[in-house]
Amino acid sequence: MSRQQRAEIDAMIRRPRPQGPRSVEELRAGFRAMMAGMIVPAGIRSRTATLGDQPAVLVETAGAPKAGTVLYFHGGSYVAGSPETAMSLTGNLVAKTGFRAFSLDYRLAPEHPFPAAIEDGLSAYHALLDSGEAPSAIAFAGDSAGGGLAVTVCLAARDAGLPMPAAIVAFSPGLDMTRTGASMDSKAGIDPSFTRAGLDHTGAMYLAGQDPHQPMLSPATLADLTGFPPMLLQSGTNEMILDDSTRMATRAREAGVDVILDITVDVPHVFQAFAGALDEADEALDRAALFLRQRIRTRDTAHPAEG
């Protein structure tokens, strides 16, 4: 294991920040600045697109892409982030699988609180299906809040009577807005990214007064996962929201869902974004890419037109 790499990344994340709650503009600027330092792999290309009612970024290999689509949801606590801030993650998934990825620029809180992001994700999935893409050729993926969306958009799709995608991959997903996991306390101080006060601050923007005790906000403890596709949940032991993944895995298994719970020791929230600088990140993305390649099934036809 890369002890020095992990120590350097932990120290970087712990750099002093302004005290007290930060404004939305400060949160977004800080997140952009942090993610701008991530390494984007060579051999990919990207361009703007539209998916459903929202803008998106289409990420592809520089050569001919393989048939198959990853619908990606970026992180940022539902308040910050964009397809650009997640480019190290989408870029690596594309480079390692050969599939294309649509990274959705879903609406953010507090301007657009719950359930706007879920609605945008469902509209994007509708658009892919309407374009002729087979559900067996589509996987949902995301990190942090986007990992939560990969699950809740799938819930919304199932409840709307849509066919399930081939798989879900979630990196350090946020799956419990009630914040009741034991790791919220046991990992406090160990987690270099989060504090309870910080999670409460951004969570309140997304909730906008809604009760978090509902499946679309806390699926790790309340969702019925019957009929869900296979899931890969990847998290690190240095995360306050680690138990979001562990409890989701238990819930999925009890519902008869194929689930892989992939926990890496002594790494932070969304450690996969540090690919190229952290060995464990590259190895985790290799495992995620293998999972996607094993699950996505395509027809021997060209991709439908993007739109």
Observed structural traits:
307 residues, alpha/beta, Rossmann fold, eight-stranded mixed beta sheet, 10 helices, 37% helix
Structure description:
- The chain has 307 residues and is an alpha/beta fold.
- It has a single domain (3-14, 44-295), classed as Rossmann fold (3-Layer(aba) Sandwich), CATH 3.40.50.1820.
- The chain has ten helices and eight strands.
- It has helices at residues 3-13, 24-35, 87-97, 116-130, 145-159, 183-186, 196-207, 219-222, 242-254, 279-295; strands at residues 44-51, 54-61, 69-73, 100-104, 138-143, 167-171, 231-236, 259-264.
- An eight-stranded mixed β-sheet has the order 1-2-4-3-5-6-7-8, with helices on both faces.
- Helix 5 links the parallel strand 5 and strand 6.
- Helix 3 packs across helix 10 (279-295).
Secondary structure topology:
Blueprint: H1 3-13, H2 24-35, E1 44-51, E2 54-61, E3 69-73, H3 87-97, E4 100-104, H4 116-130, E5 138-143, H5 145-159, E6 167-171, H6 183-186, H7 196-207, H8 219-222, E7 231-236, H9 242-254, E8 259-264, H10 279-295
Parallel strand pairs: 3-4, 3-5, 5-6, 6-7, 7-8
Antiparallel strand pairs: 1-2, 2-4
- By CATH, the superfamily comes out as Alpha/Beta hydrolase fold, catalytic domain
CATH architecture classification name: 3-Layer(aba) Sandwich
The helix/strand class is alpha/beta
Which value, in Å, is the CA radius of gyration? Answer: 18 Å
Roughly what is the average pLDDT, rounded to an integer? Answer: 95
Q: What general form does the structure show? A: globular
Number of domains: 1
User: What does the largest sheet look like?
Assistant: 8 strands, mixed
In what range is the share of β-strand residues? 15-25%
Between the first and last Cα atoms, what is the distance in angstroms? 43 Å
Order of strands across the main sheet = 1-2-4-3-5-6-7-8
Helix content: 25-40%
CATH class: Alpha Beta
